[in-house]
Design brief:
With about 350 residues, the chain is an alpha/beta fold. The protein contains eleven helices and 17 strands. Strands 3-2-1-4-5-9-14 form a seven-stranded parallel beta sheet, sandwiched between helices. A three-stranded antiparallel beta sheet has the order 7-6-8, with no helix packed on it. Helix 1 packs across helix 11 and helix 6 packs parallel to helix 8.
Length: about 350
């Protein structure tokens, strides 16, 4: 296929690009190279890839990028937590307006296949199991409880503690910050486009992605990148809350493989797919694993919190496994060791080559 890859110069995009090329697809990359994400040397594509530096909010650039394409893999987005109210316009412009312009351009160009990078953040706190009320959506955490060190979200009915559950794609969305809201809006826009045009959308709800090439010391750095940067500077990782927050950490090569698989195999309708390892870990466990791998100081549990954070969000990825015959391949401990060793560009490049060769 001829595939337009938006955000192809980014962390996940670079891995997706390499797998698309390895699978024989013709790829055009569109990326704005916004400076708060792309610091340092300018990203350069492989020789066989056409690269257009442009903003998704520019309809003329979109029409030019979509010419002759069969499918779109849409990764371009402003990411991060988005807890400041002042961040809202940038999220809305970059993610919502940009996606709407892309979809309008796809309709003009009669391009009917979309693979959309969404996120687990659309679920909010996910699901919890109450002894009395069964599966429930946890109530929002209150500042007073967080200040007191009571980090677990309660049952919305009886306020009893909940046991965290794996979240299925059928769970009710509950976005709790600007980034999450913008990602859910992208999904709704994509579904609207598909119904109106007969197109297909695979909405890939990525969980906590880590691996070589992660952005460091930028607003887009994930917790794994932040901890790694601190350890390489000889500092102890600063773990928020009590370190018991559950996440699904998944290697970028597994995420890229799932994304390419969806682009190739999902050809009808609108379907959301959780993209996770299926093995929940705590943030504290990840900090400890990185400390061991890097021979650094023990993590420090700070008790600090961010009101926009969720406590537990872990995925049930059976739909992706069953419908698209995908499964993750990178073990958590091996992935953490690899991340610890990828301190230079050569190491990261070798990792990307291993991912492509799978």
């Amino acid at each position: 296929m001829r595939v337009l890859l938006t955000g192809g110069a980014g962390f996940i995009g670079d891995h997706v690009l390499r797998i698309l090329l390895a699978n024989g697809h013709e790829v055009r990359v569109m990326d704005s190279l916004r400076p708060d994400v792309h610091r340092g040397a300018r990203w350069m594509p492989p020789e066989e890839v056409e690269f257009q530096v442009a903003d998704l909010c520019d309809p003329t650039a979109i029409d030019r990028a979509l010419g002759g394409m069969d499918a779109v893999v849409h990764l371009a987005a402003k990411v991060g937590l988005g807890v400041a109210i002042g961040d809202m316009p940038d999220y809305a412009a970059s993610n919502d307006l940009g996606t709407a312009e892309l979809l309008a351009g796809m309709a003009r160009a009669n391009v009917g296949r979309l693979t959309l990078a969404s996120s687990m953040v659309v679920y909010g706190e996910g699901l919890g199991l109450c002894p009395d009320h069964g599966e429930v959506t946890p109530a929002p955490r209150q500042p007073a409880a967080l200040e007191a060190g009571d980090f677990e979200p309660p049952c919305p009915v009886c306020e009893r503690p909940l046991a965290p559950l794996l979240v299925r794609e059928t769970a009710r969305p509950d976005p709790r910050n600007a980034y999450a809201t913008s990602k859910l809006a992208q999904e709704f826009y994509a579904a609207n486009w598909a119904r109106a045009t007969g197109g297909s959308v695979a909405m890939m709800r990525y969980h906590n992605v880590y691996g070589p090439g992660m952005p460091k010391d930028t607003p887009y750095a994930g917790v794994a990148a932040i901890f790694t940067s601190m350890l390489r500077a000889g500092k102890a990782p600063q773990v928020f809350e009590d370190g018991g927050q559950r996440r699904d950490f998944i290697h970028v090569s597994d995420v890229a493989a799932a994304t390419v698989r969806a682009c190739e195999a999902h050809g009808a309708g609108v379907t959301a797919f959780n993209v996770g390892s299926g093995m929940p870990r705590t943030v504290g466990e990840m900090a400890q694993a990185l400390s061991l791998a890097l021979g650094g100081p023990e993590p420090v549990v700070t008790g600090r919190y961010r009101l926009g954070d969720v406590r537990h969000i872990t995925a049930d990825s059976r739909r992706l496994r069953d419908q698209l015959a995908w499964h993750p391949e990178v073990d958590f401990n091996a992935g953490m060791a690899e991340l610890a060793g990828a301190s230079d560009p050569k190491s990261a490049t070798a990792s990307r080559r291993r991912a492509v060769g799978r």
